[in-house]
């Protein structure tokens, strides 16, 4: 779980800092389940028995949350619904001087949440969609490991 979480965060950091893609508000929210999963995985690796198994069980709702956040983001990208985050909405400019408008601008440019980021040109799956697919795969692996441990009698 720790490796899966750190891999997702590492790819997100590479895309942001290495490729220069600006993340939107939903992209930043999608990183939280991976942080939680990495911490749970670390504690599970350091634990034994029931405690480790309990931490594995906690990975399931974390990955369900990751899948849910990805589904919300893909829906926003596809135009199925508006983003639930206010920072994804278009900015509202209030009257005032040019200097006041410049002072009100954010320090970092934001990216609208409905503008998908495609990493592979020929693959029509956005990064948010890939995040959801990866979360579903990690969820399946965690569930498989828990079921396998139950069948073999290990607790």
Brief write-up:
Helix content is 65%, strand content 0%. With 155 residues, it is mostly helical.
Order of helical and strand elements: HHHHHH
How is the biggest beta sheet arranged?
Answer: none
SS content category: mainly alpha
- Just give the CATH class: Mainly Alpha
* CATH architecture label name: Up-down Bundle
Task: Give the number of domains.
Answer: 1
pLDDT averaged residue by residue? 83
Q: Remind me, CATH topology?
A: Bromodomain-like
Shape: elongated
Gap from first CA to last CA: 18 Å
* Total count of strands: 0
Low-confidence runs of at least 5 consecutive residues: none
The number of helices is 6
- Percent of residues in beta strands: under 5%
In which range does the helix fraction lie?
Answer: 55-70%
Q: Any idea what the radius of gyration is?
A: 19 Å
Protein name: Disulfide bond formation protein B
Main location: membrane
InterPro entries: DiS_bond_form_DsbB/BdbC, DsbB-like_sf
Membrane topology: Multi-pass membrane protein
């Amino acid at each position: 779980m720790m490796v899966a979480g750190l891999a997702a965060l590492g790819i997100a950091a590479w895309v942001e800092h290495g490729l220069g893609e600006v993340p939107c508000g939903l992209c930043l929210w999608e990183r939280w389940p991976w942080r939680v999963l990495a911490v749970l995985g670390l504690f599970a690796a350091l634990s034994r028995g029931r405690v480790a198994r309990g931490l594995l069980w906690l990975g399931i709702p974390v990955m369900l949350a990751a899948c849910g956040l990805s589904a919300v983001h893909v829906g926003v990208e596809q135009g199925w619904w508006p983003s639930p985050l206010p920072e994804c909405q278009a900015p509202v400019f209030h009257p005032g001087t040019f200097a006041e408008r410049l002072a009100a601008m954010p320090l970092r440019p934001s990216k609208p949440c409905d503008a998908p980021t495609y990493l592979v040109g020929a693959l029509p799956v956005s990064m948010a969609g890939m995040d959801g697919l990866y979360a579903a795969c990690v969820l399946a692996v965690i569930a498989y490991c828990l079921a396998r441990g139950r069948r073999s009698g290990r607790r």
